[in-house]
Amino acid sequence: xxxxxxxxxxxxxxxxxxxxxxAGINGMTVTEVQGFGRQSGHTEVYRGAEYTVEFVPKVKIExxxxxxxxxxxxxxxxKAARTEKIGDGKIWIVDVSDVMRIRTGERGSDAV
Amino acid sequence: MDFALDSGNTAWLLMSxxxxxxxxxxxxxxxxxxxRGKNVLAMLMQNIFAMGILAVLWAVVVFxxxxxxxxxxxxxxxxxxxxxxxxxxxxxxxxxxxxxxxxFILFCAYQMTFAIITPALITGATADRLKFAGYATFIAVWLxxxxxxxxxxxxxxxxxxxxxxxxxxxGTVVHINAGAAALAVILVVxxxxxxxxxxxxxxxxxxxxxxxxxxxxxxxGFNAGSALAADGIAAQALINTILAxxxxxxxxxxxEKIKHGYxxxxxxxSGAVAGxxxxxxxxxxxxxxxxxxxxxxxxxxxxxxxxxKSKFRFDDSLDVIAVHLVGGLFGSIVLGLFADEAIxxxxxxxxxxxxxxxxxxxxxxxxSLVTLVYAFTVSYIIxxxxxxxxxxxxxxxxxxxxxxxxxxxxxxxxx
Lengths: 112, 415
Prior knowledge:
The complex is a heterodimer of chains A (112) and B (415). In chain A, 20% of the residues lie in helices and 36% in strands. By secondary structure, chain A is of the alpha+beta class. Chain B is an all-alpha fold.
């Protein structure tokens, strides 16, 4: 099993969700986050005073998938999230040793 | 003289009193949107609390100190109206206000709403760092020692009015007065912890725009109500109260766009308020295109005055000095250029641009400077004494946590 974590542009969340549902995922967890990468921040102006806002709002998506589905899901996710402009975000994939569905107590792939 | 109540005038002043009272919660949201989210309740509280303490204090003693002995050409009133004695549903008990065709108790209520919002204006300058008990003590003492005497000198036929200066609705009494007090208090209380290095950006500008709308709406009662009648002067004051902030918004945004490349929402709101401030002393004394010239000038000047605080290195958090002190000075002084005897017979010496000489202009400058110096000096002393006794500045730790939680045991937002 894999944990796929993606940080994307907030306005791309709907596109990504639809693409992942079409690719067959059963669930996902979404968190509003802030951060910076190469995009760095942006400037805001309040009454003539300029402020650099270093942390840009992003959305973090986490999903658990079977090993066999990982490449397809990552491909669908990256395609939907891509604008080809700076700040599109990142995806990383890590191995997961075990998973449990709390309601039933199922373990491993059955719980994904 | 027998009291002849005019129902039209009375109806308008009843309405105006409610309108001006509504400005204080409007101001709370105007300021509240500009502070950080951890301090928004403290800001709202300072404003709403002003309605609590100052209304009571006004009825108990300050109305008497301001409006007792009216028309004496002096400095302060007396105790004739202590505890609202002699303030009834009939006419004014003394000569100076005999022209009033509204109940004297209504005049007292209307003036009360001015006394509430004036100290509340200071809270923008001192945002995010005042200890609540110190603040409460300051505005109470300030109302007695500063607002009462200045209102007497200007509005009650005291020294400034007798000297020849004009102030229709409070350029000196409200805006220069509060602006000078704001400057004094921030010099005593110091900068917010972290200022100017840590970013302190507005947490909810929609609140600020909402507050601007409430202020503008209420200002109709502030200025047009100051005619103390439902007449042509009130109508003139009303249109001026629309045109001046409109032109000021344009002036502010124009400079902002040229200097920074954007026309901002906060700029539109701030410009409108600057125009409202500047037209306040002029509202019932100028006509034609004058409110547009005054408003536009105020928008540009107040925007440029934003730079004062970084030049002199003080922390006027929400720019009360640029908007209220500079806007109030600008409006009060240019009245000496635009005052029109055809609009209001009270104008004895017309403004310089309307064929009058420099007489009124000189009087306006003197009135402005006297108010500025008196308010600054006494406010500074009051703030120093409070700072040394019960304390005026919230601790660094309280500021870090946020005043909402540390001073009021509440938070505005759950997450």
